[in-house]
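seq:
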Amino acid sequence: MKAILNVIWLIFGGFWLFVGYMVAGLLLCITVIGIPFGLAAFRIGLYALWPFGQTVVDRRDAGAASCIGNVLWLVLAGWWLALGHVLTGIALCVTIIGIPLGIANFKLLPVSLLPLGKEIVPSDRPFATR
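struct:
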């Protein structure tokens, strides 16, 4: 079921969200200071490309730098990427078939707003340690 939902997701908006994250990541990687933010955008972009079967968990080793970085991310890229998720989620929820896809878009909102200090893991092992 996850594979079917991922393919439908890819066709009906997932690819364009992925492109948005990749563009944001490239723009953020222009400066040395923006590289951690660009890497976060690339990580979330891969999650946005194939979200079913994965979940987001808090990293245990995240500290104050993640908090400060999340504030900067919110101003630089998070707001616009989250707006894309909201608009796509509303558009997908118009049809009954699109409701699970719209919910997945809304599931991506927290990580698109505050990605630092988060980790994307398979859904069947959300508490696995490194």
